[in-house]
Amino acid sequence: MRNLEPASDVTIYELSSPLFTDYASKQRLIKLPKGTAMTAPDGKLPEFPEGTILAKTFYYDRPDAPQGKHIIETRLLIKDEGNWNAATYRWNELKQEAHLLKDGARVNASYRSSNGVEKTVGYLIPTEAECSSCHRTNSRIVPLGPELRNLNIGVSKRGRIVNQINYFIDIGILNPVDNQALGVLPNWADNRFTIDERARAYMHVNCSHCHNSGGWADDFTSLDLTYDTPFDETRIGSRKKRIAERIMLTGDGKMPRLGTTVLHTEGIQLIRDYIEGL
Ligand code: HEC
Ligand code: HEC
Q1: Which of 38, 36, 17, 27 lies closest to 76, judged by CA?
Q2: How many Å lie between the centroid of ligand 2 and the Cα of residue 201?
Q3: Residue 144 is assigned to a structural domain of this protein
Q4: Domain span at 27
Q5: Are 177 and 164 in contact (CB under 8 A)?
Q6: pLDDT recorded at residue 170
Q7: pLDDT score at 18
Q8: Are 32 and 69 in contact (CB under 8 A)?
Q9: Which of 90, 141, 236, 245 is the most exposed place for a label (fewest CB within 10 A)?
């Protein structure tokens, strides 16, 4: 467990554009009950069978630690009787076991920035109530990352690069679907996409879970940051200044409202470039 090696019936998955969480690394896993598969009507969230488990473990690489990692928490979503249950487990000091944590916690951690400088962070494990602030559509808890278009990328499996959608179909966890027809959510860090595509993809993953119809922010503002909302309906145009201001804050009024304590320099630069070009 402490080497984060999943059991044989558990599949690691990767996202084209992931959520930023204070520069933590993440391992994402999916486990379906034996003999079941996901079905996909389009490039968005698939239908998950009863008993599906989605897990995400947050850690910082630490070459001096025994496993090379400072593992902090493992978050779970488990589908039971049609509803998703959310919980997080905090790893103990020896990184051998993790325990249910409902009230959140602050954990001191460190990471290396892109220019090699060691930085410290007071990483925040969310409370149980905070899970549903982000993971909700109206009053129901929903998964956010594994939209098929966000999974439609090349990944390394058994030593070669394969399309992740086709890999899921091959191992029987996804019912056959034409991966060419699903579209791809751009990788926000990939310069081969335009600034517009990258910024919209970044905001889709980092903002739209609150800023969409049925999300938390929907009660307060009509700003909709979902990738496929046509530009004129997003209200980005009339909120340019506010967006640019609020992504620079770390205290009151900060955006994203939850899930970060430090600024994401690279993401902020991208949004600012995008807004300047509008
Ligand atoms: C700041 C918003 C936010 C909070 C708070 C949050 N999540 Fe998430 N979570 C996300 C986003 C966005 C993704 C998908 C992107 C990714 O995996 O990088 C995600 C992914 C996950 C996944 C992988 C499956 C999926 O839905 O993509 C699990 C499991 C999960 N979260 C559980 C939890 C639990 C349990 C809590 C509370 C302890 C929690 N999350 C709190 C935003 C949040
Ligand atoms: C965890 C939920 C959550 C996330 C994630 C989030 N927001 Fe918000 N946002 C809110 C809420 C709630 C409000 C309304 C209350 C307020 O203004 O603080 C809001 C308000 C705003 C406003 C003011 C809107 C207006 O009409 O004046 C802007 C701009 C904004 N958010 C931008 C962003 C951006 C950009 C991101 C992603 C980088 C983001 N938000 C991520 C919850 C969130």
Answers
A1: 27
A2: 16
A3: yes
A4: 11-181
A5: no
A6: 97
A7: 98
A8: no
A9: 245
